[in-house]
Automatic annotation (TrEMBL):
Pfam families: HTH_31, MLTR_LBD. Gene3D superfamilies: 3.30.450.180, lambda repressor-like DNA-binding domains. This is Helix-turn-helix transcriptional regulator. The lineage of its organism: Bacteria, Bacillati, Actinomycetota, Actinomycetes, Micrococcales. Residues 34-84 form the HTH cro/C1-type domain.
Length: 282
């Protein structure tokens, strides 16, 4: 680990960003040319003290999870992300595998979506980033790790965390859609990828998954309209818009409701409620 190089790299990339670049308000007159340390720490979901020590060249070796979070916060390109990993003493992530590096172009769009639920998903259904509105609607999924980061995996292994969001009559369709997306990823990434690991685990643990998997349904799209259930507000009818990266490895999913509709009013109410009751519903 090259602490000096890491400290300088983080500092320079922080200085190169403006609050508007990452969806933050500039606030009062600023004394620093770019982002503040506490702003980077907030974006990366780490303590300001921890981040400050990294910039001062005296912090511990960051984990790959921490580095992925910093790459997202600093809007690094793939080459820059790989360099960050190497100077921090880690091997760069496999460029062929599903990556936690969020597409900078999708992040720029997400940063500008404040009043409607929006999230960025990997090809395996892992939520890489979600805005506050998405957390209020769907809950904060940042606490999951391993294969459980994928909503596909949770749907079959921990159904109590996912299926309550859908009306009972829609659950069969939703499960088949999730499997078809996983099969698309499996076909692209191969059996030795994380997609292959997930398929093997689900085939062993879920008879329902095995039955759907054998249908060989393949898709890389999302329903144009769906109904989601919030534990406090009830059913919300939503339209789904999606934006894919060029290689279709990541998806920006935006959930909207027609203006002045009942569902639009419910989304506005969610902005007030936030995530304060989500955890109680699980």
């Amino acid at each position: 680990m090259d602490r000096t190089a890491l400290a300088d790299f983080l500092s320079r990339h922080r200085d190169a960003l403006q609050p508007a670049d990452v969806g933050l308000s500039p606030g009062a007159r600023r004394r620093v040319p770019g982002l503040k340390r506490e702003e980077v720490a907030l974006l990366a979901a780490m303590s300001t003290d921890y981040y400050a020590r990294l910039e001062q060249g005296r912090g511990p070796q960051p984990s790959t999870q921490m580095l992925a979070a910093l790459a997202r916060a600093l809007r690094l390109t793939g080459v820059e992300r790989d360099y960050l990993y190497r100077i921090a003493g880690h091997s760069a992530p496999d460029s062929v595998a599903v990556s936690d590096l969020v597409s900078p172009s999708l992040l720029r769009v997400l940063d500008r979506l404040n009043d409607t639920p929006a999230l960025i998903l990997s090809a395996l259904g892992e939520t890489l980033v979600q805005n506050d509105s998405a957390r209020a609607l769907l809950g904060d999924v940042s606490g999951y790790s391993g294969l459980e980061r994928s909503s596909v995996h949770r749907w079959f292994v921990r159904p109590e965390t996912e299926r309550w969001r859908y009306p009972e009559q829609d659950r069969d369709r939703a499960g088949r859609a999730l499997v078809s997306i996983l099969r698309s990823a499996y076909g692209s990434l191969g059996p030795r990828s994380r997609a292959g690991e997930m398929v093997g685990d689900l085939l062993e643990r879920s008879a329902e998954f095995r039955e759907i998997w054998e249908r060989h349904e393949v898709a890389r799209r999302f329903e144009e309209h769906k109904t989601l259930i919030h534990p406090e507000i009830g059913p919300i009818e939503l339209d789904c818009q999606v934006l894919f990266t060029e290689d279709q490895s990541q998806t920006l999913l935006v959930l909207t409701a027609p203006p002045r509709s009942e569902s639009d009013s419910k989304l506005r109410l969610l902005a007030v409620l936030g995530t304060q009751t989500i955890g109680e519903a699980r």
